[in-house]
Structures are given as C-alpha cells and as structure tokens.
Target: Transposable element Tc3 transposase
Amino acid sequence: MLRHFFFLQLSEFQGYNSATWFQQDGATCHTSNESLADLKEKFAGKLVSRRGDIPWPPRSPDLTPLDFFLWGYMKSRVYSNNPTSIAQLKANIHGEMAAIPRAMCERVFGNLKTRFEKCLQRDGAHLDDVIFKK
Model:
C-alpha cells in the first residue's frame, strides 16, 4: 500500500515537499521492518513512529490532530444525512474531506503547536487542562 498507493498519491499532493514530516501511531501493523524501511527512506530524519527517527509519544491523543480534531469533526459531518449505503458513506467522506477549509487546518495546526509547547513545558506529562479552541 505504501509503495503502490500512498507514495504515488503523496507525490501528486501540492503540499508535499522535502520538508514534509510523517507521523503514525505505534501500532505493530504500522511498524513492520519492511514498512519502516520504506518510510525512513521517503521521510529521512522526519519519521515520527515507534522505532522511527523520533519515537512515537506513547498514549498521546493530545498530540495527534487526527485524534483531537479530525475523527470527531468528520463523524459529525459524514453522518449528518444518515447515509444508507457504503457508496453514500464514501461520497460523504470524500466530500467532507475536500470541504475542510484551509483556515480550519491552519487553526488545528496552530493548536497543535500550542500542545507541543505545553508538552515540553510539562516534560511530557499529560495535558489534562489543554484548552480546546474552535
């Protein structure tokens, strides 16, 4: 999947460049030797993962935009019209992903920067009082 789908799609994405970082969780299915070798080659020095260049912070949904933002946002949007088929669900997902405004992404990553700073200030401790911004 990495070689024959993800890397091809990534090369067509206008936001991808040599400064792009890759982050994934530490699930064992994501960290096989073969997968990590491909990722380390593609994202040399910029792989956040279990056994990656930068170790994945354990139990860190506070530091993952997919966890603290995207999954909940998408669920609320994708199911708003109660899709009744897989095709309709897929269409909703594609439509909602494409409709996320750039300004919203910028706010999410601004919030992520704040979360990283707080994590550093707390020497990696849990961020139980992080303020969720809209």
Remarks:
- Residues 44 and 50 are 15 Å apart (CA to CA).
- Helices lie at 2-12, 33-42, 65-78, 86-99, 102-121.
